[in-house]
Design brief:
The complex is a heterodimer of chains A (about 475) and B (about 325).
Chain A: E1 3-12, E2 23-33, E3 38-42, H1 49-57, E4 64-69, E5 72-73, E6 84-87, H2 99-104, E7 111-115, H3 119-133, H4 135-143, E8 146-147, E9 150-151, H5 153-164, H6 168-176, H7 185-209, E10 213-214, E11 220-221, E12 229-233, H8 236-250, H9 265-277, E13 283-287, H10 295-312, E14 315-320, H11 323-329, E15 332-337, E16 340-345, H12 347-352, H13 357-362, E17 369-376, E18 379-382, E19 385-389, E20 396-403, E21 408-410, E22 416-426, E23 429-436, E24 439-449, E25 458-463, E26 468-472, E27 478-479
Parallel strand pairs in A: 3-14, 3-15, 6-13, 13-14
Antiparallel strand pairs in A: 1-2, 1-4, 4-5, 7-12, 8-9, 10-11, 15-16, 17-18, 17-20, 18-19, 20-26, 21-25, 22-23, 22-25, 23-24, 26-27
Chain B: H1 6-34, H2 53-59, H3 70-106, H4 111-119, H5 126-136, H6 143-147, H7 169-198, H8 201-209, H9 214-225, H10 227-242, H11 246-252, H12 271-280, H13 284-312
Helix pairs in contact in B: 2-3, 2-13, 3-7, 3-10, 3-12, 5-11, 7-10, 10-13, 12-13
The chains are: A alpha+beta (about 475), B mainly alpha (about 325).
Chain lengths: ~475, ~325
């Protein structure tokens, strides 16, 4: 589902009596999000990214502007009718329900239109198929559930469900046949199969006698030969199948019977995603989903989110203040500041080509080094050091130069001279803390390959031109060099 | 460190412990003791030795039976009255106060005003309210009969100027329950409102996104998340209902009412009412026996509630 935001604006009214001014959280935002892409809304706290997300979800009403899902205007649609899945920052899992019930909850409210089927026959055929082809494995699964001298029904069912993608009630039915207690399970299985086949033919006979027609999938047909549709709630089995399928996708099968409080942060997070995904929403919205996780789990979970998003192909919007997070998994990022879109593109492109000082400063760890500089004619100076000459520069004015930490090359004949303060070696790279001779207060961070020997004291570096950006001092807009 | 400063902790606790010991622990133990004494004289503190007769007289027809005996007063009147009051008022008052609290929590305008209005009954004296209710339920001039167009229906006392007018027991129980529920609402509403305001709004947003209808959100999200508060009010109001006394005096006067015997117990006397009555008659040992009996009933009910709640309350 393609999402389009047109002139989206949100103003939180102030209180003139208390001298609180109106706050514009989101200011005339125009974004187009491609179908099936993962887009990150990135910005410092208070930049309006969460407000934007909640407006897309429908939990906040925009002051102005429109929200389109595909060719449907959803601006004034209630959140429950938008078909979205939302993962809250603190997950908002219902603490009194088990994981299974949490994931199940959205499904119990759904109305679906489905083909009317002779479900009993379909189920029986599934069992017949399993017993005829996979009897030995099923017996092994049930027997492996032996606990304190008893076979566990729920454990067996869980295993059968996991392996054969059937619903829980069907797996429990297989357990209840008692194959595991039988001396000769093969014989018992074949007699059960015969019984089920008898039952099927009886049921179908009844339908035949009534003159009801059905197709090979046992869907009931009307006079014209089309399947009869019915509008209804999901049955317990259908709900179970969806819950099992989703929990398999996010790998929470093992904790379905637990309460959220008994899960780790990462597991809770996956449950929250499962709850958002289970009703197959058109759009998945994630509000700072990783902020409650520890560093290791955060890495793991963001890979997970990417994997789930790729598997389902669902359009996903992801809000974060962590630029590393956004850069690592998003197809596109939108950098926001004070309710405005600053730049939108592929993460690497935004990093390589920031269009303003804010974006340049916001992306990258360690952050970009900023130098006050001036232009004389076509030449660019930082202090006494002449960095470069470029035709795009002219006149005499103050500018700001940004250089990425990885943009420095050790070179005794380089353009800039630095005073080295300390060198921190971190395995592959080393971080050099230094200051430029023109401005000793301003601390500079450089990242250089740790195999290079750097002398102490005053050292000259040359600058990689792709890592150097020039910004206007007043507008902070990028001045593009030729 | 711990053992050194221990005396300080005891010093701080001392006033409460001493007061509790004098006015709570000693009376409890003494009540047990007195309930086994024969012909106890509370002025002199003398008795004729130990006996089980007090319990036999109050709880069984073994020693004395027939109308007017203590056994009949307790087992035929006081205990059924108390039980009925408890069974009727506790669940109803909790459900009604829960609904009001949810309603109050979801409105914005005039919320504080309504909160105050709903809290007013709590600060009014029970006897005074009882007297007002007895006017409301008056058969001749009561506003209740006027509103529901049931002229001369007797709720509390026989109608004035009507020959052979009697009061139906169930009418009286209705009036009493109505009054008890009304009077107990504010405290519960206050507790539920506090609990509701502590529930994270995100649960409701999540439920809304999941397209859960309002009633379902209330039943599946609000009520379970409010279950600690519900358990608390359930237990305190159970205990309160078992100890109901003020309301009977307030509504039916010092006689506890006089009803048509064919419709049920002849008065609305409760267990605590009986206990006070015995003290007034200088029969403290019977009062003690009845008090111990009531104590055991309350204890059993409370234990059952805690047991049941373990599965259903989510902290």
């Amino acid at each position: 589902m393609e999402i389009v935001l047109k002139h989206l604006t949100k103003v939180f009214p102030g209180n003139p009596k208390k001298n609180i001014r109106d706050t514009t959280a989101v200011d005339n935002l125009n974004i187009k999000i491609k179908d099936g892409s993962l887009v990150g809304l990135l910005g410092p706290s208070g930049c309006g990214k969460s407000t934007t997300l909640y407006m897309i979800a429908g939990l906040k009403q925009p002051t102005d502007g429109e929200i389109w899902f595909g060719d449907e205007d959803v601006t004034n649609l209630a959140p429950e009718k938008r078909g979205i899945g939302l993962v809250f920052q603190n997950y908002a899992l219902y603490p009194h329900m088990t994981v299974y019930d949490n994931v199940k909850f959205p499904l119990t409210n759904l109305n679906v239109v489905k083909n009317k089927t002779i479900q009993k026959v379909v189920d029986n055929n599934l069992i017949i198929n399993l017993l005829e082809n996979n009897l030995d494995e099923i017996l092994n699964l049930i027997k492996s559930s032996l606990f304190k001298g008893k076979y566990s029904k729920s454990a067996s069912a869980r295993r059968i469900v996991f392996k054969y993608h059937v619903v829980t009630s069907l797996a429990e039915k297989i357990f209840k046949f008692g194959l595991q207690y039988s001396e000769n399970p093969k014989e018992l299985a074949s007699s059960i199969v015969n019984k089920l086949k008898d039952e099927n033919s009886q049921i179908l006979d009844k339908f035949d006698k009534k003159g009801v027609r059905y197709n090979k999938k046992f869907e009931i047909l009307d006079e014209t030969g089309n399947p009869v549709k019915e509008k209804r709630h999901l049955t317990a089995d259908e709900i179970d199948a969806l819950v099992q399928e989703t929990s398999r996708l996010v790998q929470i099968n093992d904790y379905l019977e637990r309460k959220p409080a008994e899960l780790s942060g990462g597991q809770q997070q996956r449950v929250a995603i499962a709850r958002a995904l289970v009703k197959k929403p058109r759009v998945l919205l994630l509000d700072e989903p990783l902020s409650n996780l520890d560093a290791r789990l955060r890495l793991q979970t963001r890979e997970e989110i990417k994997r789930i998003q790729l598997n389902t192909g669902i359009t996903t919007i992801f809000v974060t203040h962590d630029q590393e997070e956004a850069m690592s998994i998003c197809d596109d990022i939108v950098v926001m500041s004070l309710g405005k879109e600053m730049q939108r593109n592929h993460p690497q492109e935004v990093y390589n080509n920031p269009n303003c000082l804010f974006v340049a400063k916001f992306l990258g760890t360690p952050p970009i080094n900023v130098f006050p500089a001036h232009v004389e004619g076509t030449e660019l100076f930082v202090g006494q050091d002449k960095l470069l000459a470029n035709k795009a520069l002219s006149g005499k004015k103050e500018v700001i130069v940004g250089i990425r930490p990885e943009g420095f090359i050790y070179n005794p004949k380089g353009e800039m001279e630095f005073d080295i303060k300390s060198i921190i070696t971190q395995g592959r790279d080393m971080t050099i803390l230094a200051s430029h001779t023109s401005n000793p207060e301003n601390q500079i961070k450089m990242i250089i390959d740790s195999s290079i020997q750097i002398p102490n004291g005053k050292v000259r570096f040359s600058i990689k031109s792709t890592k150097l950006f020039v910004f206007d001092k007043e507008t902070e807009e990028r001045i593009y060099l030729d | 460190m711990e053992s050194k400063n221990n005396w300080k902790a005891w010093l701080y606790l001392a006033p409460v412990i001493i007061l509790l010991a004098v006015f709570t622990f000693f009376p409890i133990i003494n009540t047990f003791y007195v309930s086994f004494l024969k012909n106890y004289d509370y002025m002199r503190g003398t008795s004729d030795g130990f006996t089980f007769d007090n319990y036999l007289l109050v709880l069984t027809p073994v020693l004395k039976s027939g109308p007017g005996t203590m056994f009949e007063e307790v087992m035929m009147t006081a205990l059924p009255n108390t039980m009925l009051i408890t069974i009727i008022t506790v669940p109803l008052s909790i459900i009604i106060s829960l609904l009001i609290a949810i309603g109050l929590n979801s409105i914005k305008a005039l919320k504080k005003v309504f909160q105050t209005i709903f809290f007013l009954p709590y600060v009014t004296n029970a006897i005074a309210v009882g007297m007002v209710f007895s006017v409301i339920f008056d058969a001749n001039t009561g506003i209740f009969n006027a509103i529901f167009n049931t002229p001369l229906h007797t709720w509390i006392a026989p109608a004035f100027g009507v020959q052979g007018s009697t009061v139906n027991y169930w009418s009286a129980l209705f009036a009493l329950s109505f009054y008890i529920i009304w009077h107990s609402l504010p405290y519960k509403i206050l507790i539920f409102l506090g609990g509701l305001q502590n529930i994270d709004k995100q649960y409701y947003e999540a439920a809304q996104i999941d397209a859960a209808p309002k009633w379902k959100t209330t039943l599946k999200v609000t009520v379970p998340l409010l279950s600690p508060q519900i358990l608390y009010t359930l237990i305190t109001s159970f205990i309160g209902a078992f100890k109901e006394y003020n309301s009977v005096i307030g509504l039916f006067g010092s006689e506890g009412g006089k009803f048509d015997k064919t419709t049920g117990p002849s008065s609305m006397k409760t267990m605590v009412y009986f206990i006070y009555e015995q003290i007034g008659k200088n029969q403290v040992q019977y009062a003690c026996a009845a008090a111990v009996f009531l104590f055991l009933i309350i204890m059993v009910f409370t234990v059952i509630q805690f047991r049941v709640s373990k599965k259903r309350v989510h902290y």
